[in-house]
Design goal:
With about 230 residues, the chain is an all-alpha fold. Helices cover about 80% and strands about 0% of the residues. The chain has 11 helices and no strands.
């Protein structure tokens, strides 16, 4: 147990003294998570709204596909993105392999089903009389969309927070697409895996503490939003 206690003490020292390598991984994690969340929200809110608000042929099949993608393994996503971004792949000319934007593409694929599914659930739970009332008042399609989305805002925000927590803690995509390059694409989770393998528990524990703190903040926001709904 002594090495764990020593690692914990050194972890606090690394965080307090602003250890550059530790904070490089933290900043890379925050940057790539923010990229992927902006992309997944931009791509996922409208399809999620349509799934929850409208009825169309094949809706059950579409929901089944989205729900299935919720359990898509991160390693498989990393493998597919790697295949597309490698020099032999169709997107190899973009030179995004082993870069933060490349990781963000994989994490966007990971977060997108979460945003779509939880947005659809939030919209489905709206009062059924809301649509009738808005149409009675003469609202057009744009006003119907914006007003309904506003009423479901806390559920949509909960979807965003849940997806953010998922991408923040994934390791398979970051490892395969990012390559775990020091000072460049090394994130918190890949750094923990590397440092633990080298026996450097202090840095691993320090990064683990940061990850727990971020997860706590994300969970606190989620609990707050659920209370508001």
């Amino acid at each position: 147990m002594d090495y764990i206690l020593e690692g914990l003490i050194k972890a606090f020292q690394l965080l307090i003294t602003g250890h550059e390598e530790t904070y490089s991984a933290v900043i890379a994690t925050l940057r790539v998570s923010s990229y992927s969340m902006c992309a997944s929200l931009a791509l996922g809110i409208v399809p999620g709204f349509l799934l929850g608000y409208t009825d169309f042929p094949g809706k059950k099949l579409a929901l089944s596909v989205v729900n299935t993608l919720l359990a898509f393994p991160t390693v498989l996503i990393g493998l597919l993105v790697y295949a597309f971004l490698s020099h032999r792949g169709p997107l190899g000319d973009w030179e995004l392999l082993f870069t933060l934007p490349g990781i963000a593409i994989g994490q966007t694929i990971l977060a997108l089903p979460i945003v779509i599914a939880l947005t659809a659930t939030a919209v489905e739970s709206l009062d059924s009389q809301l649509r009738v009332t808005l149409m009675t008042l003469g609202a057009n399609r744009r006003q119907l969309f914006l007003t309904s989305l506003w009423e479901a805002r806390y559920g949509v925000l909960a979807a965003a927070v849940t997806a953010y927590g998922r991408v923040m803690t994934e390791v398979g995509i970051s490892m395969m697409v990012g390559g775990n390059i020091k000072w460049n694409t090394r994130t918190i989770t890949t750094a923990i895996a590397l440092e633990t393998g080298k026996g450097e528990f202090a840095m691993g524990i320090a990064l683990g503490l940061v990850l727990v703190l971020i997860a706590f903040l994300v969970n606190s926001v989620l609990i707050f939003l659920r209370k508001r709904t």
